[in-house]
Specification:
The chain is mainly α. It is built from 3 helices and no strands. The longest helix is centred in the N-terminal third of the chain and has 19 residues. It starts with a helix and ends with a helix. The model has no long low-confidence stretch (mean pLDDT 86).
Length: 55
């Protein structure tokens, strides 16, 4: 699960860069990938994900 959380963190960083650079298609693709990774985490680790996102 730590590997998955790491992947989500990387995707969030990539998404932020794409949004700041106004790369709309890239940002959209990254949002989709990020959503899929978050779904993989499932409901059991929502609190861990929220903690990670608040950093």
């Amino acid at each position: 699960m730590n590997e998955l959380v790491g992947k989500i963190s990387i995707k969030e960083t990539q998404l932020k860069i794409a949004q700041e650079s106004n790369l709309l298609q890239t940002a959209e693709a990254l949002e989709n990938q990020l959503s899929q990774l978050q779904q993989e985490l499932g409901d059991n680790s929502d609190t861990q994900l929220q903690s990670l996102m608040s950093l």
